[in-house]
Fold each of these.
Amino acid sequence: MKNSGTMMLVAAAILSAAACGGRSKETGPAGGTAVETAARWTIGMSQCNLGEPWRVQMNQDLKTEAALHPEIKVVFKDAQNDSLRQRAQIEEFINAGVNLVIVSPKEAAPLTPPVAAAFTKGLPVIVLDRRVLGDQYTCFIGGDNKSIGRAAGAWIVRRLGGAGKIVELKGLMTSTPGQDRHTGFREGIAGAGLEIVFEADMKWLEPEARKEMESALSRFNKIDLVYAHNDPGAHGAFLAAQAAGREKTIAFVGIDALPYEGQAYVRQGILEASFEYPTGGKEAILTALDILNGKAVPKDITLPSRVFTKDNIDRGGEWISGAKTPQ
Amino acid sequence: MTLLRSPLFRAFLALLFVVVLGFIFNAGGSFLRWDTHRDMLRQISVFGILACGMTLVIIAGGIDLSVGSVLGFSAVLFALLSLRLGWPAGWAIAVSLAAGAACGLVSGGLIAKFRIQPFIATLAMMVFARGLAKFISGGQKISTAVLRPDGNYGYADAPAFFSFLNSKILGQNIAVVTLLFLLCVAVCGVILARLRWGRHIYAVGGNEEAARLSGVPVAATKLLAYGLSGFFCAVAGLCQAAQEVQGDPETGTSYELTAIAIVVIGGTNLLGGKGGIGLTFIGAMTIGYLEKILSINAVGEASRLMLTGAIIVGAVLFQKYRK
Amino acid sequence: MALRMTGISKSFSGCRVLDGVSFELQPGEVHVLAGENGAGKTTLIKILAGVYPDYSGEISWDGERLKFKSPAEAAARGIVAIHQDLAQVPSLSVRDNLFLGRERTKAGLWMDYRAEAAEATAFLKEFGVEIDLRRPIGEYPVSVRQMIEIARAMIADAGAVIMDEPTSALNAVEVERLFAIIRELKSRNRGIVFISHRLEEIYRIGDRITVLRDGSRIGTEDVPALTPDRLFQWMVGRDVTGQFPPRTPSPGENVLEVRDFCVADPSRPARRAVQNVRFDLRAGEIVGIAGLQGSGKSELLNGLFGAYGRPPGGSVRLRGRPFRVTSPSASIARGMALLTNDRKRTGLVPEMGIVPNMTLASLRRFSSWGWMKPRREASSADGYMRALSIKARSLRQEVGTLSGGNQQKVVMAKWLQTEPRALLLDEPTLGVDVGAKHDIYRLLNDWTGEGKAILLVTSEIEELLALSDRILVMHRGRVVSEFKRGEAGRERIIQAAMGA
């Protein structure tokens, strides 16, 4: 038993070290290991994954805004793209007694019950970017993917002069943004003489988009434009075209327009246009503060969006008509 | 064998150690609430069901690397039959369970009749079943999403059985999947302790040649063990599909590692011939609590993975020192 | 230039296996080491080859004191042993095995395959052996693999080569080749220690012979000067009678009729380990089978029981009806039981308790509809513990922790539970202490009194002579002699077993 005693001590030491080390990295605003003034409210935030750069940006926006408000403390959890894990995290937030939950769900159906459970217990829940089913939540904040899709469609119609062959690379079609960016786009190009020669679900991932584009390139000799539901997807398509030597004859359009990603691609000439999809991080914190301070908030907040092209990038893009004016 | 040396006691010690850690790092009192424990049980249940079948197979002297994939295959099949094709729950369940068992029997047949090493045979089944899952689902998740006339997707209600499996009963105090897990534990317990087949399993795992020369039907014993493991994978697959409200062809990936870890931490010897389902149950609780404690303390993913790996090694060494 | 072992003694767990044995090997001689099973030959050569570093006494070569801590050290010094279980890696090529541990390299790092191939080809040509160096050695038959072992010893430039029963798996042609190689080694002034049971071989190839008995050296003599009679006397020595309970056999009906029975060597299916054996076994009778290593006696028992599946030839009648040998479970169902000679490997499940081991062959009696009846099991086990005087801490003790004698009794209990008519016992008192041996002898008498028939294989000649109503002697897979009780003594039996 002597040896096993040492074993236990070693294990205990490792666990304590990790728990302390792990915790300080994840909680509180950036660099929050210093003395924390007692935060009045704790907010639990569950992000469906941190593999997409857009989501990393979302967390960053949340952190930046939260740092400006010392009365709140945000605990971040990463669900590693696992719906069941995300559900567990929401339940843990409930049990930990946080004051408010912000969640960006991976999928609607599996996450609806836990969100509803929190909501009915009186715990406010802000749903970011992807919806849950039903209305058992406090507030939904997201861009209007449909109108972005429509605007993209309209822009593409003008760009191609009303005729051309298009490849559509879609995001995860079981999630609402993918569905909306698709239906909006189709509405936007309805009636014009544009032909969708190829469409595929690239699940928001650049390597998948590249694979799908390679298939498209080998099947079709003439492709005029690629419309991807996000910038990584558009970039993946660009790389595939570049490998086939056809990148100069194809135009690429994406969505997200993160400063160091989509906007940079536009500057470099990789993308002809990128439509901004705001992360909503800042708005989420501000709305959370409203809720915690007892103010009423709307059920749905739609964030406005801009389009970036080579012409207007230095001006900071152009607001898309049909979107609400910025606050 | 004195109490201190019994494997059950040592497994229990390890569990106790983890629980004590939970009380220490209780994340502001979370660990003290019953809800946390109920949730932990529910989260570990699917893995625990897989570990039940794995226990039988390991005691019989083999290993089953395909449990995650067969889980995925059964989950997709179940979703396909009940969500997309609208079959009544009873038939969908029966066919999915049979499919899982069939996969297990194929593995078992390769191992028992063709003398292929368990590692290789079940590795092949792992890949094949994953392919089957992707094949019948067309590579897409099968969910309750329906294309509405206005071009948008809406979500139909999940069939009643799905909601039932996904729910909690007894005043929201225990999840249905947890009850299923306990049922599987009980079934394995009966087999190993009370059935003649269970005696065969221990003998074949303990000394296959001696068992054969004593007239034990070695091939049939192994075949049934793998078949039952496949059956349990299907049960777990049903639970998984119900909880995710969809059939995801990728679901269950790498679950076999967790299942094996549970059995090992419980104290069942990987070489076969020794162990029991009680040990596996304690192993499941240990791993379940470990993950829960890390999760409620918001330990980062990297630390979490490294820690889990270190603790698995620690637990095994702890058991070795009993000699 | 002699290799000398002086006053070598060794004990295993308090049991004295070698007692002050001296042995000397001259360069260029074939020195035969002979003796019955358990005389200590294998232990002696293992000490010489560095396998047992723990012994008392002295080894010297050319006056230089040697003390090996491992076989590698002995090999480095030039003493190489070719054991019965060849120390080769079956999946590696012939070339790799030849140079295993002594690889030829360039600058100590890079494998020099060309040098190896050249050296190997040169050596093997001298042996007259043509093989493809690159094929895995496991694909070649045992005889070729033995050649390779010898070649390996030569490549290692061994000064002394020890061969333990080298001809047990060889046919006549291969034996000739082996002898040719041995003569070649002699001409190069290598010394050879040759362990063998076969009379014809000893007299053909041996220069000198040393006989061990019960751990002591009986004598050393030049082979031509030692007559076979004196050789037997040396090997057999005094009779130890009086420790066996008296037997009054009254044989009844034929339980087993075996005709033209053949068994294939399990490790080498082309070879017949048992050839055209014919005998009858009657109820209430003990038939003893004598034979030395390689005679096929164990294979006969295993083959009859179905441990190797269907035999390649012969017919068996069990209690008057034809019986097809197929598998252990079929034999058990018809009333046969086999006690193997290696209970740890094939007789017991070491980590299970006493009770489950006892019931392993008759589980149907202790279960109904697949459901085990533990109380029935426990009471039956209790009965056998008493009947066979099995000593253990409790019924739940793991059998792996029991003493040899008690383990053997547990295995016997297992077979008795199946209510057999014919018991095939392979070395039932191997590794069993004196007290338990007595118990087992009594039991054999009781069983035959009840009408069971026993086929008994044992290497202890006294046991064989005292217990058997009839004795069959096997040599190289055939039954060469049959004696009734009292017709032959030790010398005659050993003579027959050695092929004389």
Amino acid sequence: MEKTTLQKRSAAIIRRNRKKAYLFLLPNFLGFFVFTLIPVITALVYSLTDYDGNNRMNFVGLKNFLQLFSDSSFVFSLQNTLIYTIVTVPLIILLSLLVSVLMNNGVKGAPIYRAIMLFPHIASIVAVTVVWQFLYNAKSGPINQILQTFGVDNPPAWLSNQKTALIAVMIMIVWKGIGYYMIIYLAGLRGIPADQYEAATVDGANAWEKLRYVTIPNLRPVTFYATIMCIINSFQVFTPIYVMTKGGPGRATSVLVLKIYEDAFVNYKFGYASAEAMILFLLILIVTLIQFYHNKKMEA
Amino acid sequence: MKKKLVSILMASLMAFSLAACGGGDDKDKDSSGKTTLRLALWDYDVDKDMYDPIIEAFEKENQDIEIEIVSSPNADYETKLTTMLSGGDDIDVFFAKSNTALPGLQAKGYCMNLSNLLEENKFDTSSYGTVLEQQMTFDDNVYALPFRTNDWVLFYNKNLFDKAGIAYPTDQMTWQDVGKLAKEVTEKSADGVYGYSFQPKVGFIFPMLAGTMDGFDITTSDLSCTTTALDWILDMQESGAMEEYSESVSMNKDQTYFYNGEWAMMWNGSWFVQSLNLQENLGFEWGIVKSPYWEGTEKNGFVTSTPLCINASTKHAEEAYKFLTFSCGEEGASLLAKSNLVPGYMNDTVLDSYKENVGLDESSLNALMDNTTYSFGEPNNVFSEIISAGQKEMELVLTGNETPEDFVKNFTEQRKELIDNAE
Amino acid sequence: MKKTSGKKIIFVVIKYAVVLLITISMVVPFIWMLSASFKTNLEVFEFPIRWIPETIHFENYTNVWDVANYPRMFLNTVKLTVIITVLQILTSTLAAYAFSKIYFPERNVLFLTYLATLMVPYQVVMIPQFSIIRQMGLTNTHLALIMIQAFTPMGVFLIKQFFDGIPDELIEAARIDGLSEFGIYSKMMLPLSKSAIVSLAILTITATWNDFLAPLIYISDKNLYTIQLGLRNLCSEYTTEYGQIMAASVMSVIPIFILYCFCQRFFEEGMVSGAVKG
């Protein structure tokens, strides 16, 4: 992306640019450095120690990392996190793309629908989770009552069944997430130049072809942003599970961050918890890099 | 040049953060020269009536000390406490959630070793009974004092038994007897009434499993004995004498349902006496009998306690010690007893104060006295992790996802894994 | 008007069906919440659902209002939200401008550092962050919440993505015209990226408004409580007061919803101006 003309400029200009850049960066970087970067680096150091929050910490090398894979709770949480991400991210992205394209196509009352669809996203997660917990109630919850009137004799016990608990959480997250990504997509859709559609019409493209060859390629940067954010968010899902199930029943809905939380705050194993977090960090990094290079290749 | 700029930037950042650090002055002593002690606890609004008299009395007696309460929601107390302790916050005195949480806190060095202080001040610890030795002592050193102790006993709703025309529960029933009784009550009562219930939280059910064998130790014992208890629970759920655990949980059910007259019997700690007495217009009479036990075991009940600790890194050790021995000593205990809770500190004065204020009939009072107890066994550095793993597995049995046999197998495996990994 | 073909009608029907279905599924839980907040505990789980309760139990609200000191929490939350959002927008746009429009050798490394910290779960950062805040003497102050939430890398990332879409040629032209960098930033970039800024504002407002973990950790004094912390407290202390819990939940979402309805106009404007960038 860099302008080759820029690169050829003399060192003096680079120096001047650098000074300007740092001036712009400074206010944000100060806060970022003190309250995000230092803590992150500290956590990184912890992952190589047996730090427990109080006693002297000892350097233990990679011991924490080696132990991870004989820790069945960790493996379990890792699995759950992957399942959770693989299911929710595509669903959220596809559904929000679908809705935004339809809404952009001209729907009467679109602002109202949009307001309603964004509501789950802006509503507090604590409030939303409390409501869903009641909705999911096995015997007297509205969801199962409705299922029963539709002739489902044995509706699932949702949050208390090992097999459906994670699904129940995922449904809520998709429900909560669509609105936000729809707004992102709508912003992207408005940014597509009308002349491209006109040109496509002249070429005799039908609606599907316009979507395939004009809309989706133009939305690539938006999709890049949305997917990365969505993946990062689902790798890091915590509050809804913490409030709704605390990982239960058993370990059925335990995800990585919940496990990290438990190890750090209940078992005081900060070193170990940081090592788990580094695995999570690596996972997210890999996904981002894949996306990043994929995106670059498409642009080139 | 590049390096220079970066280093200037870094240096200014450091200066900034250092300068900001310097701003962190303690406000320990205010203008009147009072020392402020910060006390960490949970759900203060619920337990106001318990804490306030003690704190007021303490501040009256020690004009130079002020207590500042740091409260957090019950479910988030661990998060808050851990952050405060390990982040170096100036917490002086704190409650551990229960005696099972204490070994973890002690092992990390958060609790001050009290042995020397107690000795120097010639503080008489004999009034704490065996709890101090069993639950607060590690390697012969005392790290906490028991603020409250709770004998686990069986509470019952007399009206429901009267209505059903069934005799009240008695002391020294087996769990099997309780099961039979619960089924009878359920059968002869209106819809929506359950003969028996736990507080539907794993922590309130799990202790029952430890009673299935004499001398049970959760770290070493063969776990197959626990199937007796699990089978009992499943049978209760199936017969409808107890509401399904999953249903109770998803409705956030708690003792309110006992207040509402929907549960005829409930196994709970003695703190429940206070909660029941605080209810206005309860609309029914209730009673207490001793904890049920399992056939073939000794007649033991379960006991838990609420430890009060001094933060090992407090700057006000002297004042904190004063507060600790006040609240867990005779004065605090008498006040606690007045609010119908069983203090960890127990002597004749305190006992009289409890009896006088609690308003229990002779037989109920008797149920709370002279109980022999069992526990989860010897605390160790993975103690609370093992208990928590066991609770999670048990939840799977209660929700019908696993059989009791699965529980034994899986829990044994996880226990081994936790012990192995800790070495 | 053109003659509409059969295919088109089917498409329109499907279009409305999908949009309506999703809209309804989005709103029903909230209506249930609203309706439950006016019911007694027993009525909450009645079936068939009585959407409009027989008698309106408004005391759920008055109880919550009194117990939780709602007005105080409301003011606290508003204050925090406004300050954090303003700081976030100001510093993020400045930083994003440097990352997107000024070429300097370390920019990729620095930007990647920003991105990388986004990927570390907050739960691990919490402890070291707490130590720093404590050493500054900021625990149990609102300033602590402001400091840790106003400079998140998220905002920089979002704005940079939008800035990248604005052609560099435009900037070059302005530079040649003799506009200073700050002039370009304030007179060109900001107006051009209104939509992105509004998005960031909404994102920050909702995140701040709804955050409960940070207030939980840093705030102890009841007078400094935010709405979410108050809600969580209430849920912990009154677990089976279903009606009241619902009332408290409604009260925690209503203000932000009203704000959103009001902001929708700005949102529209932001999108129109965003369309210019193509």
